[in-house]
């Protein structure tokens, strides 16, 4: 059966003025992942990325690691992350926000979890994107990926979009999406196998480029 690899972007720049830029470590992670996938014999014949800079930079590192520097990738905005900063701001538009929710990791991810659950329930007034619109565009992206002409498809996306794709695949409740998202490692690989009628989860949150010798530096979540 054809196989789809959906990769979360490498480490971005949490707390910086522009999150949407890979850190120095992020560039190392993406290159190392590309080398590891090539060593596994992965040879994609179709590539997709979201429209965000961290997706493109991660893809470029993976391609270099695989020795495919000139390989083109198709952009699909359905693979983009939801605007988590704007969503948090919308949720706390009329109430005092938790301290350091945009700058301190523990506070940010705890608050993000609660905010996403409220978003799913429809309790965030005037969000930057409705939950229904988000899930619809992720599903549209998935359909595009599996319709690509190729036996092996590789896509680079973000934790929220991948979490939703995973939750939909296993027919889990909406609340499972944020659980998948918050567990997602940088440069983690999620594998699916598919046919015209079926779409199955085949591997979750894999990091073939990380082992005991480099985990202390290479394993990150944000």
Give the percentage of residues in beta strands.
Answer: 5-15%
Helix content: 40-55%
User: By CATH's scheme, which homologous superfamily applies?
Assistant: Phosphoglycerate mutase-like
Q: Write down how many β-strands occur, each being a DSSP E stretch of 2 or more residues.
A: 6
CATH topology: Rossmann fold
Average of pLDDT: 94
Structural class: alpha/beta
In a few lines, what is going on in this structure?
With 222 residues, the protein is of the alpha/beta class. Helix content is 43%, strand content 14%.
What does this structure look like?
The protein is an alpha/beta fold. The chain has a single domain (3-82, 129-218), classed as 3-Layer(aba) Sandwich (Rossmann fold). It is built from eight helices and six strands, in the order E-H-E-H-E-H-H-H-E-H-H-E-E-H. A six-stranded mixed sheet has the order 3-2-4-1-5-6. Strand 2, helix 2 (53-65) and strand 3 (74-75) form a beta-alpha-beta unit. The protein is globular, with a radius of gyration of 17 Å. The mean pLDDT is 94.
């Amino acid at each position: 059966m054809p196989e789809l690899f959906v990769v979360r972007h490498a480490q971005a720049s949490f707390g910086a003025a522009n999150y949407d830029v890979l850190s120095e470590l992020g560039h190392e992670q993406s290159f190392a992942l590309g080398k590891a996938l090539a060593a596994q014999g992965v040879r994609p014949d179709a590539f997709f990325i979201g429209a965000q800079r961290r997706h493109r930079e991660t893809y470029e590192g993976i391609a270099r690691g695989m020795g495919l520097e000139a390989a083109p990738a198709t952009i699909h905005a359905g693979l983009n992350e939801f605007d988590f900063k704007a969503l948090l701001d919308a949720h706390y538009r009329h109430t005092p926000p938790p301290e350091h929710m945009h700058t301190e990791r523990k506070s940010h991810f705890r608050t993000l979890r609660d905010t996403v659950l409220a978003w799913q329930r429809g309790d965030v007034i005037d969000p930057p994107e409705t939950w229904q619109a988000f899930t619809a565009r992720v599903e549209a992206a998935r359909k595009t990926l599996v319709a690509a002409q190729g036996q092996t498809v590789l896509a680079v996306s973000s934790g929220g979009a991948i979490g939703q794709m995973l939750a939909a695949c296993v027919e889990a409740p909406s609340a499972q999406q944020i659980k998948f998202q918050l567990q997602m490692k940088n440069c983690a690989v999620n594998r699916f196998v598919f046919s015209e009628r079926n779409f199955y989860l085949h591997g979750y949150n894999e990091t073939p480029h990380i082992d005991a010798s480099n985990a202390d530096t290479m394993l990150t979540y944000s």
